[in-house]
Design a protein that fits this description.
nine-stranded mixed sheet; globular; alpha/beta; Spore Coat Polysaccharide Biosynthesis Protein SpsA, Chain A; 9 strands; 323 residues
């Protein structure tokens, strides 16, 4: 980051082989009601047509600054973006997600009015690969810092933070390659206040090749390490990051199987109480597969919505306080 911010916001995106969705993500930023921003995009060694798409947009809007680099991973790419950011605030956006037009203005207004808060985020609609809204993720909590220790309450694409605070923290920690955002949010919460807006600020794409789906086990394992480190910092003032050895091999993301993707879509629809749509997908998956999870989910789609809502509310309370 330059010594003095000269813009209100630096929007920061890292992209790797996302030719299908990156154009829509970029357009969602160019359509913002707030115009005082730069859009830093790091192409992390893409091998598809991503580079050409980025250069096309950059040629038509001076606010877009594209940096090309050999593949180094999302965390390293994002830290490079932080090093060149000139904004007072940084807004993150994943290359397959979408920001609603009011997103930047809403978050800037909040941070300007609350100088003690260093990190803010909202909620997101959940969309499938085709852009259909299938649900929403908007975790509500009266104590964001406490809840954050139990679960990640933000989607990366609905977050904005104070650049100077994150620079002082050293940015993202590059040994973490699947949940580096969660680690940063926790470290911010230990030096400043954080907040959660009860507002839908964009759309999170359920992408069959995204981190959440294609690296589920790796991400869960890393999240457990991050939580352990956070608890240790709270108890002793430091953690074991310096001696932490991440898994050596890291494969590129690859799409999960279609049937697995449809199952996840069905679960999102079920949690959104769109029971008929969920039942149709689950019924298709049941054909020739006598798996218990399909049978249980199919039965759940026939339950009263009040019962499902009660179960989901109890689950959310548990995740917020006890997980």
């Amino acid at each position: 980051m330059t010594s003095e911010p000269i813009l209100m916001v630096s929007v920061l995106m890292s992209v790797y082989n996302d030719e299908r969705f990156v154009g829509v993500a970029i357009e969602s930023i160019l359509s913002q009601t707030l115009s005082d921003f730069e859009f830093i995009i790091i192409n992390d060694g893409s091998t598809d047509d991503t580079a050409a798409i980025l250069e096309k947009y950059a040629a038509h809007d001076r606010r877009i600054k594209v940096y090309q680099q050999a593949n180094a991973g999302t965390t390293a790419a994002t830290n490079f973006g932080l090093s060149v950011a000139r904004g007072k605030y940084v807004a993150r956006l994943d290359s397959d997600d979408i920001s609603h037009p009011h997103r930047l203005q809403a978050e800037v207004d909040f941070l300007e009015q609350n100088p003690g808060i260093a990190l803010v985020g909202g909620g997101s609609e959940i969309i499938d690969a085709g852009g259909r809204v299938i649900g929403a993720r908007n975790i509500k909590t009266s104590c964001p810092a406490r809840t954050l220790l139990h679960r990640c309450i933000y989607q990366q694409s609905d977050v904005m933070f104070r650049t100077d605070v994150v620079v002082k923290l050293g940015g993202y920690r590059e040994k973490f390659r699947n949940a580096q955002d969660y680690d940063l949010w926790l470290r911010i919460s230990e030096v400043a206040e954080i907040a959660k807006l009860d507002a839908i600020l964009g759309q999170w794409r359920l992408n069959s090749g995204g981190y959440t789906l294609s690296r589920t086990l790796e991400q869960k394992s890393e999240v457990n390490v991050i939580k352990r480190f956070a608890r240790r910092r709270r108890a002793t003032g430091q953690d074991d990051y310096a001696s932490y050895l991440p898994p050596e091999a890291m494969k590129h993301r690859c799409n999960i199987e279609p049937g697995q993707y449809e199952w996840i879509v069905a679960l999102v629809l079920l949690q959104s109480l769109r029971l008929r749509e969920a039942r149709e997908i689950i019924n298709e998956l049941r054909q020739g597969h006598a798996r218990g999870k399909y049978i249980l989910a199919y039965v759940a789609t026939s339950m009263p919505k009040t019962i499902i809502s009660l179960v989901l509310n109890v689950r959310n309370l548990y995740l917020n306080t006890l997980a």
